Amino acid sequence: MGFGDLKSKAGLEALNNFLGDRSYIDGYSPSAADAVVFEALTGAPASSLAHALRWYNHIKSYGDLRKSFPGTRKPVGSYGTASAAAAADDDDDDDDDIDLFGDDDDDTAAQEELKKKRIEDYANRKAKKPVLIAKSSIILEVKPWDDETDMKIVEKNVRSIEADGLRWAASKLVPVGYGINKLQINCVVEDDKIGTDFLEEEITKFEDVVQSVDIVAFNKI
Hints:
Belongs to the EF-1-beta/EF-1-delta family. By secondary structure, the protein is of the alpha+beta class. It folds into three domains: about 70 residues, no CATH class; about 35 residues; about 90 residues, Alpha-Beta Plaits, CATH 3.30.70.60. Helix content is about 30%, strand content about 20%. A four-stranded antiparallel beta sheet has the order 2-3-1-4, covered by helices on one side. A hairpin with a 2-residue loop joins strand 2 and strand 3. Helix 1 crosses helix 3.
């Protein structure tokens, strides 16, 4: 169950395979699950375990913020396997309990008509339900190399990043000492389209002016 011993090669390989098509241990944003698994590791995975290493560096970048990741902390062995709850539809009303196909013992014309009506009614109710788009507000801190870096160019570069599900918002410069300022900028993202790893990777591509990127706040909205 779970990844097994995360201090062993087999455990790390299981973690790497698990993260092959996931950004986080559970869900679409950092949670207590990521903090628990991160703390179970003795250090960064080998470079050959690219998925696990990417995830490790991303979670590591949060620093002490890991302690406040949302969710309930569970034993590390409970992570890494498909949960029965995850397989359930997130629709929690009684629609899912409807027997769409009735009793097949007597497949009469009347029963077929009743089945058809039930299916149509069910489809109509599902179609009327509003689609909720999960969004998050993220505050990033972008640090320059030195006091000679033009922060207007830094901000212009950051705002030039465009993607479906990403909207840049307010920003400000925060002094860090010795005449150096860092850019603190807010953005709103759609959780199923944009992750913090994407933002970090895109911003650090401007390596001539950007030294590093930190996540200072991550809130669901």
